[in-house]
Automatic annotation (TrEMBL):
Pfam families linked: MraZ
Gene this protein is translated from: mraZ
PANTHER family named in the record: TRANSCRIPTIONAL REGULATOR MRAZ
Keyword tags: Cytoplasm, DNA-binding, Repeat, Transcription, Transcription regulation
Family as reported in the entry's similarity comment: Belongs to the MraZ family.
UniProt keyword Repeat present: yes
A GO term for molecular function: DNA-binding transcription factor activity
Official protein name in the record: Transcriptional regulator MraZ
Organism of this sequence: Chitinophaga flava
InterPro entries, A to Z: MraZ (IPR003444), MraZ_C (IPR035644), MraZ_dom (IPR020603), MraZ_N (IPR035642), MraZ_sf (IPR038619), SpoVT-AbrB_dom (IPR007159), SpoVT-AbrB_sf (IPR037914)
Transmembrane segments: none
Gene3D superfamilies named in the record: Transcriptional regulator MraZ domain
Amino acid sequence: MTGFLGEYEATLDAKGRFLLPAGFKKQLAAEAGGQFVINRGFEKCLSLYPMNEWQPIFERISKLNDFDPKVREFRRYFLNGATILELDSAGRLLVPKNLLSYANMEKDIVLAAASNKIEIWDKGKYQEFFENFSPGAFSDLAQQVMGGGDNNISI
């Protein structure tokens, strides 16, 4: 299988480390080699990419036109703070303090599958996100994203 499925809770220790859930470890491709890149997500969460998923994204970003101010702005935002992480001998990852601060994470976190990456959320913010998202809004979003044109599939 390509990508990730699942949602797990974890706890940050005093140093900002968390144990990568066994459910995600089992889904890691061998070519990831226990290395990841973590960076800012789009909704005040963090995005954790296995190295094998990060490399093609980085290559694509590297080929963008540097003469375009929007490209430079995007690169700055997307790549600044991006950090290589490696699982330690206990299976933990250390989140840089600047990224913990960006995502307002202190202790309880949620790791949620997001296709080829794992989103890491402060638990309270994650719960709030879903409490404020109604089934009707989800249905409308599904129709907009999956229901028209080339994306027309049945789920």
